[in-house]
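@channel anyone free to eyeball this complex?
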Amino acid sequence: MSIFEDNKLQSTSISELGEFGLIDHITKDFKSKNKTTVKAVGDDAAVLKSALDKLQLISTDMLVEGVHFDLSYVPLKHLGYKSVSVNVSDICAMNGKATQITVSIAISNRFPVEAVEELYSGIKSACEKFNVDLIGGDTTSSVSGLVISVTVIGEAKEEKISYRCGAKVNDLLVVTGDLGAAYLGLQILKREKDIFLANPGVQPDLQGNDYSLQRQLKPEARVNLIEVLEELEIKPTSMIDVSDGLTSEILHLSKCSDVGITIYEDKIPIDHTTMNLAKDLNLNPIFCALNGGEDYELLFTIGQEHYDKLKKDVDFTIIGHVTDKSEGNNFITNDSASHPITAQGWDALKK
Amino acid sequence: MSIFEDNKLQSTSISELGEFGLIDHITKDFKSKNKTTVKAVGDDAAVLKSALDKLQLISTDMLVEGVHFDLSYVPLKHLGYKSVSVNVSDICAMNGKATQITVSIAISNRFPVEAVEELYSGIKSACEKFNVDLIGGDTTSSVSGLVISVTVIGEAKEEKISYRCGAKVNDLLVVTGDLGAAYLGLQILKREKDIFLANPGVQPDLQGNDYSLQRQLKPEARVNLIEVLEELEIKPTSMIDVSDGLTSEILHLSKCSDVGITIYEDKIPIDHTTMNLAKDLNLNPIFCALNGGEDYELLFTIGQEHYDKLKKDVDFTIIGHVTDKSEGNNFITNDSASHPITAQGWDALKK
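replying in thread with the prediction:
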């Protein structure tokens, strides 16, 4: 389906299988692993048995063709993987563990069965990676684009759940991994699409940009880092995942927690390949890191007593701290100037 | 929005509110009532506390403009109500009680905020009617039509859950309410749309068809009849809801339960207004009842020992019985002829 793939898919019409046949066909290889899954796909509803000592977490995301993804450069397998991963990320952002998902898709008749198989192979791959069971869904036709709606179910002990609203003055603000690469990956894909449209004979040039492309096309929910926090006996006082962009998430945490947050330019973690790529594309890497979004890293606050546990761990970067609400939300640049972070993102760096 | 409504909606652009503002705006009047709802809308995930003595039921449905509904004749408020009701119906079909829903929508920019408010007023009305809490969702733009994806969560004691697969030979087959009206309601709406398109000056003629129109536009999940079954101490051996049509659902029950099912023409419950309307539209009422779909009645099997409890209740009709698988699925007409029920529905009556 993608301009960047060999299109050697066989073409079987969905109508040959029918809706029920299609559901049977695409879900037959999914095996449930979680003991809370009593009955998965196949009845009017799935049946779950809740863990007695835990609360349940539910989140849902909808991905729409032409809004969230462009099938001319997003491989269906990656799209399937991403649709699960971004939902699992929401459960991570509650300090919980994802256990089940439902996946509903609206697909155009132009999709052959093999395309649906590609999509579900990515969904299956993500289910295996994140140890979540596919327990249900809906498959329908679409008169226009592809729509994927995923609902994820997770669990956490009550005392472990991190809401957005618990940040306290003097807490440290921590972000996992690095930021900005997913945004740059998208810029590369858009650039190559434009070149392809202008001259379909030109092969796309994606070489050397593996990291940013993978961050955009196949983001990984930070399940492993939730486990690290558990091992380190750190419970974030507040947490969110970076889907819309760092500044946007900071505003959510500070608003919900009724505090201010200050972050520092020189602390923002940016991969060296992101730095170089931003320069190649004539973009400011700090702007990409602050406003790019889709990094699916975790942003959280912790009490200062945990500082020593995280200070040497390369997966976690302390980028700021929590202040009184009266101080507002601020970005301190390398020249020590303070700029308020606004709902529109921190615009001063926009080129 | 509808050709059948006065279009006096004010027009406020969604972009004036933004996504987060829109979510706040449309969810602020929803109050949670179920004690299992710990935290509803507003964080990365909702938080639920499961009832200790119950299993949880999860189901999801996606409604797509141009496939499942036509906004030229479906009022948004009814659409919102229906999107909840059809999901609650899936939980009824498991013999459970719905408790929470998530609602994700993809909406075109052509939608003013007031249209989204209409949609959510119907969702709110259904939440109140069925006593379910709105706990989350996603709101995104759409480059084409409206898409609504609802996931419903419910609960039931383990020993009460009715799957599709438990029907036993000699069980009685029961259907609630009456069939065929929703299909005829749709035919009326389509007819009036065609007339309107041919001559926009003509007012739609919907008079006298209240019942079939309501069955199509605002179906009611049969929550009340699940409660009646509980009071009568009847647990269906198998159950499904009638969404695709009676024959289609019979095939699901018989396939899953590895049995045959025989139904009788003279037992099929059809409202007298449905009878008359079918004749007016030159359609066979039995065909409408067998294949029409969208009635959202419950179809279930019970042991013969329960016969006396239901035989005089007008809300329940015994329409057939379960046979050995070798006998297949059969429809017995009034002249005692037996016709096999096939995956294509029982075509012999098609006019």
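from a first look: Residues 77 and 122 of chain A are 4 Å apart (CA to CA).
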